[in-house]
Amino acid sequence: MSPGKEVFKGVEWRIRVADGSSEVLVPATGFARKTWRVIKGLISGLALKVWMFLKRAWAIAANDPRKVIHCIKVGLALTIVSLFYFMRPLYDGVGRNAMWAVMTVVVVFEPTVGETLYKCMNRVCGTFLAGFLAVGVHWFASRSGERFEPLVMGASVFLLASAATFSRLNPSAKSLFDYGAMIFILTFSFVAVSGYRVHKLFDLAHQRISTIIIGTSLCILVIMLVCPIWSGQELHSLIVHNMDKLADSLDVCATRYFNHSGECTNSNEEADKKLQGYKCVLSSKATEESMANFGRWEPSHGQFNFRHPWKQYLKIGASMRCCAYCIEALSSCINSENKAAESIKKHLSSSCLKVSSSSSSAIRELAETVKTMKKSSIVDLLVGEMNSAVQELQNDLKSLSYLLNPSTTPEKKKLETACIEATTTVPLMEFIPVVTLASILIEIAVRIEAVVDAVEELAKSAEFRIDDDDKSKQSKIKDKIVSEEEKIEGTTKALQRV
Amino acid sequence: MSPGKEVFKGVEWRIRVADGSSEVLVPATGFARKTWRVIKGLISGLALKVWMFLKRAWAIAANDPRKVIHCIKVGLALTIVSLFYFMRPLYDGVGRNAMWAVMTVVVVFEPTVGETLYKCMNRVCGTFLAGFLAVGVHWFASRSGERFEPLVMGASVFLLASAATFSRLNPSAKSLFDYGAMIFILTFSFVAVSGYRVHKLFDLAHQRISTIIIGTSLCILVIMLVCPIWSGQELHSLIVHNMDKLADSLDVCATRYFNHSGECTNSNEEADKKLQGYKCVLSSKATEESMANFGRWEPSHGQFNFRHPWKQYLKIGASMRCCAYCIEALSSCINSENKAAESIKKHLSSSCLKVSSSSSSAIRELAETVKTMKKSSIVDLLVGEMNSAVQELQNDLKSLSYLLNPSTTPEKKKLETACIEATTTVPLMEFIPVVTLASILIEIAVRIEAVVDAVEELAKSAEFRIDDDDKSKQSKIKDKIVSEEEKIEGTTKALQRV
């Protein structure tokens, strides 16, 4: 192609000048153009990222407004502590060391009261202990002559820092004073080393400790007075919510299996969400542990005393996770490729649904017990109901076995087997999915009893009161059981009609 | 009882004096005695606690000597940074701000390289950013008149602290710059506020940044040169170990069920430990996530490049947890109260054991693939083997179904059913446990394929090499499969003889 006939690729910008003629705007070519493009790309990319970030931030804020309150609390505490710089009399009192108060507020202010208290206590104790020890070591070092002083100080820093670091690696110590050990190392090396130069050691120690106490007291005041979030309360609610989620998952799991083309199609999305609820239980171990850990630092609040048995909540959580593992296995049954024979499904649906509904009622009642902190005698009733449902399911499974040898069917069983006569030609492969589901359901019922035991232990150690309106509740629950039975029967009949 | 005839309760201490007579040592009574007892109790209690602590510490140290090395490293880094105080020329260079270097070492030094780098980067960036911003705000505030200056400063502290705190609550930001945001708040409030009093603001900022850089460089040098522990390498090993544990659990689970009174009685404790291996997989989610998070800060090391796909390890971990849920259900089958009929066990044991052993071989081969970072074509062979074992198990299950209707048994099936002729009187209830176990085993095989996919994706994105000695390995693996089949046949025969 000749150079004169180059085809101009791209858009041509033309501007009409006042006299009617038009001028072509020559685009900035080469380097400038490329740079502009890169910059434009960068800016739009950055803007998009910022926009996405803000959108996510808004979603987080809308989802949990307490996070926004926490941010405001941090700002508030910091602004108050800044007053020490701005106001002459306060500044004169603590001098340049006011920075320690600012630093304390920044590092100890956490979302929950328990965590803040844990950090405050650790900071104060670590600072005190390390300060005393450092002064002692300093006194000893100063007696050992000018030549050995740095050696003694260096060796003590090395040894104590190593020992304190090691104590942080011990899991049981970690939960109690991990932060304190860090503050210990920090203060010790700081005081021991700067003591070698700064001669007003006691003044320094006094100022540092008083500023830290100012900072921690301010944090404690703000965190406990402005919309406090208690670790213990959070743990309590988490356990209650997880129980409800477990019950929902179990319900949806069973009904979806036996009632696949059923009425619940328009609320399918909601059901999907409920079905996934057990995953929250599976993944909440770390949260539960840290909350229980911080909960024990909290003073009496709401329904909870100072020494509320938070550890017991962990046991409840662990037993719930055991149930959740089974529900996971159950949910894989739903998605299994091996389809079960409809006739077997029909035969077992009633008792399976009864087991799942009575199990979920038991879990819900446990959630209610934990939530209201009132002992409930209905739990025993519901567990009894659950066990009799399990028994019924086992009988139904047994009645299937007469299919193997119809000749052994006793007279009284004839009636029961009548309805499954049609299934005698069903291959065992089509039994297996339902049978597996049934035995997982039975296992879940067994595991729920472990949850019941854990909750009862909590009720004992936390001295739950006895529910006053027990009797009305008992009759209500009996009505509920009857109505649920009718509902299940209805479903089963509908299934048999299909 | 008369006061003169009081029976002396407790031990009487007598001392024989030189002249042969003896004197009764009257015990210190009342308050002194009680106090002594309390003190003695306290001291012995404390001594016992210290002793237990030391014992636990020793166990931790013996279990993982790298923890001790980490402690020594912390001590070393702190001692080196202390030199800034002890040595005149260095001290003159940075002055009293040397404490920032000490503080940096204490707070950023973590056990793994990744975590230390993360904290170093965050500390440096957070300090820089906040410093610049604070100086800017300070300049603006100083222009607004003496009266408004504290107001502007206070408002800026409030707003920026709240915003930075909010960014810490965003999960995706948290993993990337949680620590940096805290340092940002700290530095900003510190510089902005003290700038109001300290007029040599730039000097302060310069010294603070240089000391922080000294501290972080020292940390990076010590952590990377003295026995470095890499987060990435740790994650890599954790995944490999977890795979091996999963395979062990699966093996022990199946053999224990089918070979309860078998030969492995004297190594029972070891088998118990192996059986519990899957629990490590269940509980390692948080560890995996934090390691993957820190791994991306690490430079190229060992077999890993800078941008090694650590996130992919999380996917492998998640798919392994799905297997572990099933193994949990499997292990509950072992402890189930419903005993299965021995005849059914015998009939299915061979194919069940084959599924479990081929599944565990597949997992072990995956572990080997990840460990050596070499693609292996044997995995496909083993997965094929696993699938054919699953097919065989399904056929065996199907063959059970002919028990329902012996009349439909085709000629070619007669031979197969011959061996289970005796079971025709077995009630279905005694089928259920084995059938449940079998279907869980099949589900495990399905989930292992998800692990295979995840590992293959890793092999793709991390560009694993192709194994050179593949052919010798293939023939080896074929021999192994044959020998395992012989072993299982032996076990089955032994079982049938019982």
Q: Which outline of chain A best applies?
A: elongated
Radius of gyration of chain A: 35 Å
Largest sheet of chain A: 2 strands, antiparallel
Percent range for helical residues of chain A? over 70%
CATH architecture heading of the largest domain in chain A: Up-down Bundle
Question: CATH topology of the largest domain in chain A, what is it called?
Answer: Methane Monooxygenase Hydroxylase, Chain G, domain 1
Given helix and strand content, the structural type of chain A is mainly alpha
CATH C-level label of the largest domain in chain A: Mainly Alpha
Q: Please tell me the total number of domains of chain A.
A: 2
Taken in chain order, the helices and strands of chain A follow as: EEHHHHHHHHHHHHHHEHHHEH
Mean pLDDT level of chain A: 81
Q: Widest sheet of chain A: strand order?
A: 1-2
**Strand-residue fraction of chain A?**
under 5%
Query: pLDDT under 50 segments of chain A (min length 5)?
Result: 1-8, 261-265, 404-423
End-to-end CA span of chain A: 76 Å
Report the largest inter-chain contact: A-B, 87 and 88 residues
Tally of helical runs of chain A: 18
As an assembly, this protein is: homodimer
Tally of strands of chain A: 4
Transmembrane segments (chains A, B): 67-86, 98-118, 124-141, 179-198, 210-231
Family (chains A, B): Belongs to the aromatic acid exporter (TC 2.A.85) family.
Keywords (chains A, B): Ion channel, Ion transport, Membrane, Transmembrane, Transmembrane helix, Transport
Subcellular location (chains A, B): Membrane
